[in-house]
Design brief:
The protein is mainly alpha-helical and 171 residues long. Helix content is 78%, strand content 0%. It has six helices and no strands. It has helices at 3-7, 14-41, 47-74, 83-89, 102-127, 132-170. Helix 2 (14-41) packs antiparallel against helix 3, helix 2 (14-41) packs across helix 4 (83-89) and helix 2 runs antiparallel to helix 5 (102-127). It is elongated.
Length: 171
């Protein structure tokens, strides 16, 4: 633990930040796995576009988990060590893709991104002017999550429009 690096915290304790970051860390690992497995099992119309999006998002979530674990260590904490702890510490939970059709998979993914946006927005408020390093890192992650939601929603909307157009042409 870098003593000078911790000394820049103002009005917040390192262990409080570590607790919040570990919850986000659990979310990122679960999001990574959810995207990974969804990309493997998704089926239906425009599934290739969904697979591309889900695979990219999985990589981003793993990168976020790495960023969070690095910051937890900088603050003198320990990232969650056991996968079972991810489910007990998560903010956003985990939804298995029971219905692997593309639209329900995208709905689950959008819901997860919306939860992540809410959590990271709260972390921004908590760390603003108290922990600039964590604040900057969370700002980067939040920007990615906003982009993810937009990407997924656009694909979802495109599929709906395509289906509507096909139905119109059939009638």
């Amino acid at each position: 633990m870098a003593k000078r690096g911790i000394s820049i915290l103002k009005g917040i304790k390192a262990d409080e930040v570590v607790t919040l970051l570990n919850k986000a860390y659990a979310d990122e690992w679960l999001a990574y796995y959810q995207y990974f497995i969804e990309a493997k099992v998704v089926k239906g119309i425009m599934k290739d576009a969904a697979i591309t999006e889900l695979t990219q998002h999985a990589a981003d979530e793993l990168r976020h988990a790495t960023m969070l674990s690095d910051r937890i260590l900088q603050l003198g904490g320990t990232p969650l060590l056991h996968p079972q702890d991810w489910l007990t510490h998560t903010n956003c939970g985990y939804d298995a893709p029971i219905d692997a059709n593309v639209l329900p998979v995208l709905e689950q993914a959008i819901k997860g991104e919306q939860c992540a946006i809410s959590i990271y927005s709260k972390l921004i408020d908590t760390t603003r002017e108290k922990d600039i390093v964590t604040y900057d890192m969370i700002s980067q992650i939040l920007a990615d999550e906003v982009e993810h939601e937009e990407d997924l929603q656009a694909l979802y909307d495109d599929i709906h429009e395509f289906i509507a157009e096909v139905k119109k042409n059939i009638q």
